[in-house]
Hints:
alpha/beta; 6-stranded parallel sheet; 29% helix
Amino acid sequence: MLGLEYGGYDMLEIKIPSLGQFTFKHIVFDFNGTLATDGELSEQVKQRLEDLSMKMEVHVLTLDSYGTAAKALRELPVQVAVLPSGQGTEEKGNYIRTLGADTCIAVGNGSNDCKMLKEAMLSIAVIGREGLSQKALRDADLIFTCIEDVFDSIENPTRL
Length: 160
């Protein structure tokens, strides 16, 4: 269900049985291991990010371990934040709070994603080809086995 206008972006309304009705403006992704494998972003993920950006504001947070994030995302309508510290855990949590945690979906897979997963109203962990941190598993509301399933479930929220 889409339709509420907020700051140039629609807001995504999702009703989750037994949890209630939620309205999301932002989705915040980790890059390496979540969106990208070995620092590379597939064409399918690029297209899905572009499609999703028409529905809500898309953010990508990364430590950019491979040095490929800025190049991979430069032509996409997403906001990219390359984090300066070696860990990024606190920065990712702070980023969610700055956006307004109650309007955010966070998607990640690593130990440094645990604070953003904990802060966001809806948090999703991805067990991708690069694995899933036990800390991220503990702090996520939902677990998916690949990023494509995350996109599918956001597009078809009755799956949630």
